[in-house]
Amino acid sequence: MCGIAGLIANAGTQPFPDLIQQMTDAVAHRGPDGQGIWSQGSVALGHRRLSIIDLSELGKQPMADEQTGCVVTYNGEIYNYIELRNELIALGRHFRSGSDTEVLLSAYEQWGSDCVRKFNGMWAFAIFDPRRNIVFCSRDRFGVKPFYYADTAAGFGFGSEIRQLLPLFREIKANARVAMNFLVSRVAEDIEGSFFAGVNKLPGGHNLIYRIDSRSYTVERFYELTSNADVLRLDGRQALEGFDSLFKDAIRLRLRSDVKVGTCLSGGMDSSSIAAIAGEMYRTDSDGQAFSAITAISEDPLTDESGFAKQVVDRAGLNWITVRPDYNDFDSAIDAVVRTQEEPFASTSIFMQYFVMQEARRAGITVLLDGQGGDEILLGYERYFADHFAGSLLSARFGNAIGVLGGLGRNGRPGALKALLWNLAYFHAPGLRRAGISIPSSLFSEQALAAQSVDRTGADGTDLFALQKREIGKTNLPVLLRYEDKNSMAHAIETRLPFLDYRLVEFSTSLATELKLTDGWGKHLLRKAMETRLPAEIVWRKHKFGFESPESRWMRSHASAIDSTLASSDLIRYLCARDALKREELAKINQGLRWRLYSLAKWAETFGVGGLSFD
Q: Annotated catalytic, 264?
């Protein structure tokens, strides 16, 4: 896991050495174990190294192949690099290191751009290929690792973080469309753009090919999640066996490391499942050494899951590390988290994750497993029951619809049926949803509201596979992955996500809905798989939190600072209607919008955002 940088100068010029160095130094926190710069002609590549696989100098980057002249700068992990290495050796390839970077470069030389289809991992990389006079860039299937780019008067730049690209701009402006989507429609992550005007993201599952001769580039999709009809036909026993085998293998691959590995543990189903299985594997492979798990404990009993986490620790024999942030910790970390995230964020919950990563660094744990993706691939959110219910009604499967209601009545949390009605209204009635945002919309100026694009929070009809595909690729998971990457890499921690092993994603999303939503239980298949590995109080929990912060408590304590920041923000004044930020008007808006306004204002202040772009 590392930080990458790249700059392709305009025709007839060469990259300024100090600029590529500056871009590389900007992500030193991502790679404290070494740095490298390479340049040839109009192309310059930079790299900051966090040593995980092959800690020797043979794994340093940018890495060049002497025979072909290809050079790579790479961030991520190819978990199946051992298997690919053996396959490439059988094809006549030779290796001098044990790194996955050399495997990646050799795979490109063997299979060209199709190499990415063979990778099981997370990646963002760029390969200068002098034979084709291109720079070939790629981002992993689901966008676990970031890749930002900007085409500017100074040249075409790319990197692991936005801060690397800002020196390429004469003026830093906010993207009005992205900002308004965030405030009004609560879209926290734009798939292709960013809050910074002119800074773009390569979407997950895409390649970018930059042609040096013509100074032009194309973005091409190489992966799209599709449903597998054979998996759809599996019965309950077959599904359980298939899922269990894939889940364990996903964890096994992600335990490959030459440095210490641990896990995040909230006490919820996803992180507990990973901790239990990984703990057993780790203990076997390390001669009985206990696997480490880190938990953030909320100071608010209503959002505290530590009691559940302790049950997992005791059952799995884990080494438990805890951190208990309070308001003072939150207050002192605000500026650091805003700088870390680089874009506004929708709640205070990511502070808990930030503190977990901070504690991992203190404990000397360089790699952490985490449970992102479990809810999306296994239907873990409560709203999915509403989609299943609506789909059953529209397809005249009335017995299924009645079964959804009955199951929630028996096994859902208190208020589950009321929540189903609310989710039906919100996600399946666009008119009601628009009416719901009309009150906060009155806060904003007409010009700002006009910049807002189409509301993207709606469901894809009643097709649950289509909904899962959308939430994995566009609406839900991408922002969680951004939070994860930025929070972890700020502390030079590599996080690995077993639920996003592409084999497990394809299998789980293709399964019949009834195997995942069963008798009022979401993620039923995972619960059955873990029934003998975790305490029943964990497996059959009805409430879920997930490193939730005591947000209401913290915001009450922070109210004065919020008011002051909003009152002094030029960006907020540009966006809001006249008099909208008076104290009595602010008191009318809900907590969520109030935080989003504050987050946007802090972001603009931190990064010196000087205006708005409506392009």
A: no
